[in-house]
């Protein structure tokens, strides 16, 4: 519970000083204190409640704005205002009854600044036709303005138009993982920019993907430490991946130890989401861990029974250059063999 | 007597059922659709607003009950569009994203989809030319359709949410079909969905993989960013623009479930540019495609040129940011983020002006 304050913010000059003096003078005559508190849901201030006051024409505005904020008011013994969107931490709001200013408030709470945990792929050698990064944050981020804070540098110099600023931005459901594409127009052979300038990435050079300070989290805090992923570029990868040479290290039965899948070619982070492990046609529940671009672990929810299992991988799974199991990222029509329509590929393994 | 009354009652019931107005909203229910995101908007008939919700992997049809015909709507002209919305929503512009706008073809009222930095969406209705109000989506008459069983069957995280996201990038209603396109956060493909409306849960939607083979020797999948529907030589077509700006057409009749549709590339409209929005306007029996772009001015393309452009582009474009294929005219409107048709003569643009001011304003067919 907090007590407040009767105030009026003003800007600039002599007139304002006079106005402030008058406001103070009036406030000493009419001063009324308001007990209020903010209701919080996690890090969000969802409502303001003015205790034991019925305020018939309650409205809330941003400091200095005439616009009433959209939201709902409930009046019983208290008066409660719930804005459509939560109040922003650190922003000053004014509470009115009709046109009469009652008090100001500013939601305050210690909020954790976001951090970049890692960037996929984890590899430090990427092919010239490498296609997409995944940036993993430790908390939900704000969407809509992320490309202002991303930069790709070649030998220390920013490359213009290297990343494609897609709208909508490609976040996962809770906005902790962002997918960022290198401009596909420069990756695809024979498209205008690729023909003229070649790929964004050139074999032999060193690059840095930089996530700059200032990027906002959903809770309003900002990234206060820049994150840099360094990598070196190697030759183009035009081969479609395959699972024939993948090696499966099966755990022992009656344990929940992970099955370890060794992949011979670095694969895209999403590969784990295209995998299923089946026993007699039934999908096994559990969790995949992307240990590295060439190693994925699967830990089951229940202990393994002995028997024969199948690792099934959807053909949509891609390597680092966007080649999937059925077709390369861009098909050479002069050399084109028939594109496979197979939906998935399988490897069988036993648990004993 | 009782029998007669019963016969009369049954007869009345039958007659009322016979004459009851059968509308597209007949299957709607009132309640809270629990919309989690609003990525794209498009109006259908009867004041029905279609909403693409990526987070729920759903498309909703909302009854806006906004069916008062307006034939003389004044020009819209709203300066500081984003600041006004931010003030209404109790925050500042950097915490707001404007996802889409749509104009109700009956009332000519504008609806705006926004997202707050917290991830919460809102649908706003613009009234009196300068005043926004949120549409209550918690108690509304609606109907919904899940987008894809395949998405629902995908790998889930610990809270049961799909790990793959299909971010809806455009949505249009045409002739009993809701059509959507989107971008996946995991694979670089292009899937186009067409769903019959009214929604029927037993009815299968068409889901198509689209690619274009246009640039010299190579063909690739590529996501469609923006699209619209039109008639070319009396046949229904989809005009689509890919993330790297080739303009592609394909006949609507090619949309068959599970098929790979190959688009016919009719123009490469310059590189380092992403299409943002497109509409079709008509004047003097000619149809024109207007397209807004991330790094180029609004382009005007005569659709009869598209129809006359036979075959696909086969020669790659050589010049820096060069263009090829059907001709286009760059209109003097840069930094246009949204385009919407207001009526047969006018269209509305959301444009970031040179002074940084985001303005919603009305232009007309003198540019056609």
From TrEMBL, chain B:
Species classification: Bacteria, Pseudomonadati, Bacteroidota, Cytophagia, Cytophagales
Source domain of life: Bacteria
Source organism of this protein record: Marivirga lumbricoides
Keywords: Signal
Signal peptide: 1-19
Name of the featured protein: Phytase-like domain-containing protein
């Amino acid at each position: 519970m907090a007590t407040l304050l009767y105030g009026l913010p003003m800007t600039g000059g002599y007139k304002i000083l006079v106005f402030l003096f008058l406001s103070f003078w009036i406030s000493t005559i009419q001063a009324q204190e308001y007990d209020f508190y903010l209701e919080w849901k996690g890090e969000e201030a969802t409502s303001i409640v003015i205790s034991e006051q019925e305020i018939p024409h309650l409205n809330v505005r941003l400091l200095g704005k005439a616009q009433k904020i959209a939201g709902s008011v409930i009046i019983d013994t208290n008066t409660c205002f719930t804005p459509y969107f939560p109040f922003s931490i650190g922003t000053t709001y004014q509470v009115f009854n009709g046109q009469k200013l009652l008090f100001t408030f500013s939601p305050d709470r210690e909020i954790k600044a976001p951090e970049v945990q890692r960037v996929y792929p984890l590899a430090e050698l990427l092919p010239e036709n490498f296609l997409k990064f995944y940036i993993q944050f430790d908390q939900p981020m704000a969407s809509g303005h992320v490309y202002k804070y991303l930069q790709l540098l070649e030998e220390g110099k920013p490359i213009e138009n290297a990343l494609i600023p897609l709208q909508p931005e490609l976040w996962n459901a809770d906005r902790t993982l962002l997918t960022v594409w290198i401009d596909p127009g420069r990756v695809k052979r024979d498209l205008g920019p690729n023909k003229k300038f070649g790929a964004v990435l050139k074999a032999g050079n060193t690059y840095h993907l930089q996530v700059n300070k200032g990027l906002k989290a959903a809770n309003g805090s900002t990234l206060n430490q820049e994150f840099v992923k360094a990598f070196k570029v190697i030759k183009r990868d035009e081969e479609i991946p395959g699972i024939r040479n993948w090696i499966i290290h099966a755990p022992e039965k009656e344990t929940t130890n992970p099955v370890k899948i060794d992949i011979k070619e670095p694969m895209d982070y999403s590969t784990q989401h295209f995998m299923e492990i089946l026993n007699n046609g039934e999908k096994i529940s559990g969790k995949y861990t992307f240990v590295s671009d060439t190693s994925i672990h699967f830990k089951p929810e229940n202990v393994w029974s002995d028997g024969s299992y199948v690792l099934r991988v959807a053909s949509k799974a891609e390597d680092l250059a966007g080649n999937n199991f059925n077709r390369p990222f861009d098909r050479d029509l002069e050399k084109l063999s028939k594109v496979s329509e197979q939906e998935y590929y399988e490897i069988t393994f036993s648990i004993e | 007597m009782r029998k007669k009354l019963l016969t009369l009652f049954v007869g009345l019931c039958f007659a009322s059922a016979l004459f009851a107005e059968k509308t597209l909203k007949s299957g709607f229910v009132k309640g809270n659709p629990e919309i989690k995101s609003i990525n794209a908007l498009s109006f259908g008939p009867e004041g029905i607003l279609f909403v693409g919700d990526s987070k729920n992997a759903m498309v909703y049809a909302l009854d806006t009950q906004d069916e008062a015909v307006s034939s003389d709507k004044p020009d819209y002209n709203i300066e500081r569009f984003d600041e006004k919305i931010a003030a209404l929503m109790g925050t500042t512009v950097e915490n707001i994203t404007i996802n889409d706008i749509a104009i109700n073809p009956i009332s000519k009222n504008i609806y705006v989809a926004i997202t707050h930095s917290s991830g919460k969406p809102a649908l706003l209705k613009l009234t009196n030319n300068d005043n926004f109000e949120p549409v209550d989506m918690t108690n509304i008459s609606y109907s919904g359709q899940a987008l894809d069983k395949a998405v629902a069957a995908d790998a889930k995280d610990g809270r049961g949410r799909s790990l793959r996201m299909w971010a809806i990038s455009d949505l249009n209603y045409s002739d009993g079909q809701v059509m959507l396109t989107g971008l996946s956060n995991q694979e670089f493909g292009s899937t186009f969905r067409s769903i019959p409306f009214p929604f029927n849960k037993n009815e299968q939607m068409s889901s198509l993989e689209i690619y274009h083979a246009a640039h010299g020797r190579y063909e690739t999948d590529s996501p469609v960013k923006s699209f619209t529907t039109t008639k070319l030589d009396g046949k229904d077509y989809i005009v689509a623009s890919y993330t790297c700006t080739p303009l592609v057409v394909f006949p609507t009749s090619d949309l068959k479930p599970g098929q790979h549709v190959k688009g016919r590339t009719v123009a490469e409209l310059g590189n380092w540019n992403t299409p943002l929005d497109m509409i079709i306007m008509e004047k003097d029996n000619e149809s024109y495609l207007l397209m807004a772009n991330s790094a180029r001015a609004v382009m005007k393309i005569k659709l009869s040129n598209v129809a006359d452009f036979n075959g696909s582009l086969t020669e790659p474009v050589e010049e820096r940011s060069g263009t090829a294929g059907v001709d286009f005219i760059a209109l003097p409107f840069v930094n246009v983020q949204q385009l919407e048709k207001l009526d047969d003569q006018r269209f509305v643009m959301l444009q970031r002006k040179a002074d940084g001011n985001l303005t919603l304003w009305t232009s007309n067919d003198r540019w056609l």
